[in-house]
Amino acid sequence: MDIEIGKGKTARRAYGLDEIAIVPSRRTRDPEDIDISWGLGDLHLDLPCLASALDASIDPRAAVVIGQLGGLAVLNLEGLQTRYEDPEPVFEEIASLPEHKATRILQQLYEEPIKEELIFRRVQEIKAGGVIAAASLTPQRVEKYHRAAIEAGLDVLVVQGTVVSAEHVSQSVVPLNLMDFIPSLDVPVVVGGCASYSTALHLMRTGAVGVLVGVGPGRICTTRGVIGTGVPQATAVADAAAARMRHYFETGDYVNVIADGGMRTGGDVAKAVACGADSVMLGSAFAKAAEAPGRGTSWGMATFHPTLPRGTRIKTRITGTLEEILIGPARENDGTLNLMGALRMSMATTGYQNIKEFQKAEIMYAPSFHTEGKIEQRSQGVGMG
Amino acid sequence: MDIEIGKGKTARRAYGLDEIAIVPSRRTRDPEDIDISWGLGDLHLDLPCLASALDASIDPRAAVVIGQLGGLAVLNLEGLQTRYEDPEPVFEEIASLPEHKATRILQQLYEEPIKEELIFRRVQEIKAGGVIAAASLTPQRVEKYHRAAIEAGLDVLVVQGTVVSAEHVSQSVVPLNLMDFIPSLDVPVVVGGCASYSTALHLMRTGAVGVLVGVGPGRICTTRGVIGTGVPQATAVADAAAARMRHYFETGDYVNVIADGGMRTGGDVAKAVACGADSVMLGSAFAKAAEAPGRGTSWGMATFHPTLPRGTRIKTRITGTLEEILIGPARENDGTLNLMGALRMSMATTGYQNIKEFQKAEIMYAPSFHTEGKIEQRSQGVGMG
Amino acid sequence: MDIEIGKGKTARRAYGLDEIAIVPSRRTRDPEDIDISWGLGDLHLDLPCLASALDASIDPRAAVVIGQLGGLAVLNLEGLQTRYEDPEPVFEEIASLPEHKATRILQQLYEEPIKEELIFRRVQEIKAGGVIAAASLTPQRVEKYHRAAIEAGLDVLVVQGTVVSAEHVSQSVVPLNLMDFIPSLDVPVVVGGCASYSTALHLMRTGAVGVLVGVGPGRICTTRGVIGTGVPQATAVADAAAARMRHYFETGDYVNVIADGGMRTGGDVAKAVACGADSVMLGSAFAKAAEAPGRGTSWGMATFHPTLPRGTRIKTRITGTLEEILIGPARENDGTLNLMGALRMSMATTGYQNIKEFQKAEIMYAPSFHTEGKIEQRSQGVGMG
Amino acid sequence: MDIEIGKGKTARRAYGLDEIAIVPSRRTRDPEDIDISWGLGDLHLDLPCLASALDASIDPRAAVVIGQLGGLAVLNLEGLQTRYEDPEPVFEEIASLPEHKATRILQQLYEEPIKEELIFRRVQEIKAGGVIAAASLTPQRVEKYHRAAIEAGLDVLVVQGTVVSAEHVSQSVVPLNLMDFIPSLDVPVVVGGCASYSTALHLMRTGAVGVLVGVGPGRICTTRGVIGTGVPQATAVADAAAARMRHYFETGDYVNVIADGGMRTGGDVAKAVACGADSVMLGSAFAKAAEAPGRGTSWGMATFHPTLPRGTRIKTRITGTLEEILIGPARENDGTLNLMGALRMSMATTGYQNIKEFQKAEIMYAPSFHTEGKIEQRSQGVGMG
Q: Nearest CA to B182 among B192, B194, B195, B170?
């Protein structure tokens, strides 16, 4: 149902994850009976969780830990890891920068060229840990750099930009044709971000095994503030899930919908799945890990844009280890630890046995829940003990 | 009317108590003429108010005081009272814990096993006060421990978990069949929480005399943040009230709907009844009492969950005695004292004589009232003096 | 259009003044051409503004000043002025009370009995100032005390409670029958508060010349917090205006709709009129006056309720004289000074010539305007210079 | 679809820019391929951005810089520049005033008469910089002062008030008839503000080349607080764009819609265009420039209104040069720098090639995005690098 913004201009109503809630079904289940595993192409993964290619969160070491826990970390192949032989002093410097200089210095530090041999080496470092290796390149650079990564044994290639369309128009360069490029590779490809039914469908038709869904998905997203674009995540995920069904109907291929961004707590993760996601990609959640290379600071990959930076280097609180963040046990209470345990608990409490079932969970539009604030103590927690 | 979240995913609109207001009818009444009593099974209770089984709020002594005032306190039979012969030093310790250690130590303190003899003794202590004794057990433990409580003279058994369904599915244990269990007992049973028409109806069919309604009911509820589930309380209560009517129509049995959680002020209590509740269950309201065992701290029964704690031990302000909180007189102004006097005043002002009438009160959806903040002084209060 | 809160429970959508905005018409006018006068019964008043019967705002001296400026102040005949021969030391004491004792001491100070001779004297003091004298009594006490006031020369009697209905039901006393009482008096009567079409209509049928509209009208109103009742003011005023039209159609009598409460700025006043009000009654706005007896503190008439106080004594900032507040000139910018000048400017800017025309102004539902906050500088103000 | 506020009072739903978001289309583009130029009458302008006639932002020097960058600054011909031979000491004084005296002193400083010779001289100073000269007068004074400006070489005359209608009614003066006045001039005229379809249409019919759209457009606008009038900007712009189409259809003349006010970030600018604006007028954005005459303070042209001041002199943070604010590069991240680069990036990301195309962009109603707050780091920014 379209809304009239003004005479002759209509808009669709879109919903954010913070506006919805999952409704308990008639059943309840034991958390330990819940199956949250999923498949990405031919790969089987224990946890429906990818870690975004944020320099502050993921280096080869962190990627190995996450992989061992059952998740899948994506290394940024255009970040500090592939620009610097030894990135550690660079991270040290960034962490120690005063607030007002951070953006400027980041812009400078990222001017250092990307080196193919470092791409090769970083992917090898992940493979050496015995886990699935995933890494990301932008559409602009993927043709140039993907070979080094694949030769090093890359298992999953992520082609990722703020917005990736199947039809990029350029007057200066011949843009990457994803339709040709993706099928030409020997590794499965995840591509995004996108945020609509039609773009998701087009990206699915490129032969990708997964589509990242999320463009300015959260209410505190800089993309939205700086350039005004974005689709609230509940709507974006549900739309992409509908595209997945159509694509499956047309081709028999099931392409994963990976909700990317706009999620902070286990509740957000659960709601993204309940809207239709097969998996989630989390970013700043992992910058809070003791193992994170950011050393208590975090920044996005648009923070150092040479002319239009978005976001800034922020201080972040170290809340636990990667293990505590991902699968617990949690010793804190704000919903950002034991994210997968929370998903499991959410499914148990509402009575859904696996991801596929949970994607069909009943949800409510409950805007009264918007406000975040003080903790209300409930007595009922006992039941889940 | 369903809302389209995205293509193929719809959601029902649900409302919180803070989004509604009670509309004055054509009549007004004297507060002293209002009857707020109710019946739970064969028991007659002066005040439509239960106190939740929170360790920080209810010990046998507090339960006796609340019972003498006309309310009904529920003792937690899986809490500190039944794990420790002398719980007083434990409460002392908890109250003195620094913030950052609280969750961890709580997790340890609650590892102490539950003892049947203490269950027996605590119930006896309440009975010795000459009041109705109510106590709670989780579905997981109720079969093991209920006998000790009933032998000690328990009047009302509360079977309570975050979410309780009539159909729990487990691969590891044979789950409690409430349909068999509840009718087998000699004491009336209250069961919950639930938050939908169908689950409420199923729980009513187990033979329970009351159903607790509330799953993540408030906007500041940790259940919602951590696991994303919940139903705003106005909708949950109205749905359960509709289930009560159907059940009554089918069986002739009237099962009480007890709104549990999401209420802080007398206004919230009044609104829950106006949505159809027969009674309310309040938690943190009583942790603010001078008599509360928490000594100015409070925590929920999910706070010490071994792997997924929700909530934390919080500092709470002592605002008055149990008597002042429940029936006044109030010497404060924020709506959290003289809760039953406020309910009475609300009914008098809007012209409704008893709980049954008030359940049919006209309400408005008034989201402009969301924001809480400064006090506006009005001149009209005199009229009710 | 009713909204479904839950199965079988519906609610009407109601709107607050802060959710609406007045839309400019095709015309603009000069502020000095705007006529904001109105008539209350046979009285002609320059300013469509009454001052509420708040002890902290209105004493006989303030009432005289407001009357001389063209407004109409209502003296509280059950407040400190009629309980104390010399109320000045009492005001001194209240202003000096520490926060935590204020409610308690207020409760005690208001236990002093009301004295008929003081009712007589205070009304005389207003009359001596050469202005229209208005004063308020509650329905419970009006029969006992109104004679003293009328004998002293009272011009307008205000019968006011939190909620006043035309049909009060009591088991202990024979309630005041407004239908008999009001026509029996020689002075015009204003009665309220009410907040619905039917109650407004019933009160109009009592023979009152004005009806006060407002029950828990604002989002920060204590009535709503403590007892959960209330109707957002835009809806309440529009409903009462519709009742006024029906009453006029049936009887030929035009009864004034006076919006009472929920207004803070000139914009709020303008919006109340644009919803249909003939006049507004302001409370805390006048406690900010240099002449206010509250000496920088303010409290409502429910603050000292013996068992269920609502509101508290608050500190308030002295922002200007009564003249500056009412008709300017303003030397501040937050919308709370020169309230009548603002109304005039609002009408000029949107092109409406008098109150009757302005009641039909086009309004918009604009919830994006909810948030109050920082000032945005505009360049266009020049046009109104 | 009209909304019922109360019985017999309806309101149209209006939307603010902060409630909407721009949806990516199927295409993406390179930022450097985007054309954001536009035409105002016969003038070609590189940047769709006017600077409001705020004394604190625009003096002849700043106007020249903005003009050289491709924008169009409007000088206030009723401000300090035309009242004082040497305004520099006046700006110094204002910048140094303590908070509580600012409004009062501003009221006094603006009592100094406007001088025709200074109007002439200031316009000449802009012309001397080799850029298009634009300046504003209010409807009340434009007849008296426009000649001096035009003689000095003015290129664009802006006739601007809080609300300008084509039909001003006055009992004291013969109001300016825009229908006669505008066609009589040799320079193109921009006129406003207005905020509705019909007023925009009437102003277009006066022969103006551009119409300013915006009356109390933002949620923090003082016009709304003080006088209660306003139309949220997304709706106002869309309505005016519809009027533009009708006017074009009737006359063949394309009159520019210039969104004025309610925009702070590049995202806001993009959204205004996506609602149908040809260009935007920004105010406080330029007070943050190093070159701004306000020296870190800012005030609106209603701040010094003699009896009803709106707004106040505020402290503002100097964030960059006019160049950095308008076309970058940005060294900050909050969306207020490189505003035109952000617009370009927004169009590239969503796949629109020029302003005309972007006016038809798909938008969403996404109220969950209301809240502004912390920065969320995203990994996808790389794609736009």
A: B192
Confidence of residue B218 (pLDDT cuts 50, 70, 90): low
Q: Identify the band that residue A222 occupies on the pLDDT scale cut at 50, 70 and 90.
A: low
CATH number of B19-370: 3.20.20.70
- The token pair at C65 is 């000043």
What CATH architecture is C26-366? Alpha-Beta Barrel (3.20)
Per CB-CB distance under 8 Å, the chain C contacts of D230 are 21-22, 366, 369
CA distances from D67 to B96, C4, D54, D64 (A): 66, 56, 16, 5
Q: How many helices (H) and strands (E) does chain A have?
A: 15, 18
Closest among D259, D281, D271 to D335, alpha carbons compared: D271
Cβ contact, residue pair C26, D138, below 8 Å: no
Q: What one-character DSSP code corresponds to residue A18?
A: G
Confirm if B213 and B160 have CB atoms less than 8 A apart: no
Span A200-214, mean pLDDT? Answer: 96
The three-class DSSP label of residue D76 is strand
Long-range contacts of D296-300 (CB under 8 A, 24+ apart): D296/D95, D297/D56, D297/D94, D297/D95, D298/C377, D298/D54, D298/D56, D298/D57, D299/C377, D299/D54, D299/D55, D299/D56, D299/D94, D299/D102, D299/D106, D300/C376, D300/C377, D300/C378, D300/C379, D300/C381, D300/D54, D300/D222
- Tokens 């059950």, located at residue: C78
Nearest CA in chain C to D310: C333
- In Å, how far are A80, B340, C142, C323, D137 from D304, measured between CA atoms? 53, 52, 48, 19, 16
Q: What separation in angstroms does the CA of A178 have from each of A173, A207, B219, D353?
A: 15, 9, 44, 22
Average pLDDT, chain A: 90
Tell me, yes or no, whether chains D and C touch by having 3 or more C-beta pairs under 8 A: yes
Q: Are D320 and D337 in contact (CB under 8 A)?
A: yes
What is the average per-residue pLDDT within D20-47? 94
**Contact, A287 vs D365, CB < 8 A?**
no
Tokens 């006055």 map to which residue?
Answer: D170
Higher pLDDT, D185 or D314: D185
How distant, in Å, are the alpha carbons of B27, C49, C161 from that of C136? Answer: 21, 16, 10
Q: Which of A296, A373, A352, A275 is nearest to A20 (CA)?
A: A275
Separation CA A258–CA A268 (nearest Å): 13
Query: Does A218 score more than 60 pLDDT?
Result: no
What's chain C's average pLDDT? Answer: 90
Cβ of B229 within 8 Å of Cβ of A335? The answer is: no
**Mean pLDDT of all residues in A316-341:** 90
Taking CA–CA distances from D352, the nearest residue in chain A reads A169
Contact yes or no for C277/C256 (Cβ under 8 A) = no
Closest partner residue to D242 (CB to CB) among A7, A202, A225 is: A7
CA angle C21, C26, C29 (to 5 degrees): 85
CATH code of the domain made up of D2-367 = 3.20.20.70
D198 pLDDT more than 90? yes
Backbone Cα Rg of chain B: 20
Among B22, B225, C127, which residue's Cα sits nearest to residue A336? B225
pTM: 0.92
Taking the CA of residue C268 and the nearest CA in chain D, the distance in Å comes to 6
pLDDT at A259: 97
Chain A interface disruption, residue of B9, B140, B286, B304, most A CBs within 10 A:
B9
Nearest Cα of chain D lies from the Cα of A384 at a distance, in angstroms, of 31
Cα-Cα-Cα-Cα dihedral sign, residues D80, D82, D86, D88: positive
At position C41, the amino acid (one-letter code) is G
Compute the nearest-CA separation of B309 from chain C (Å): 31
| D258 touches D190 (CB < 8 A) | yes
CATH architecture of A20-369: Alpha-Beta Barrel (3.20)
Kindly list the partner chains of chain B, i.e. chains with 3 or more CB atom pairs below 8 Å.
A, C
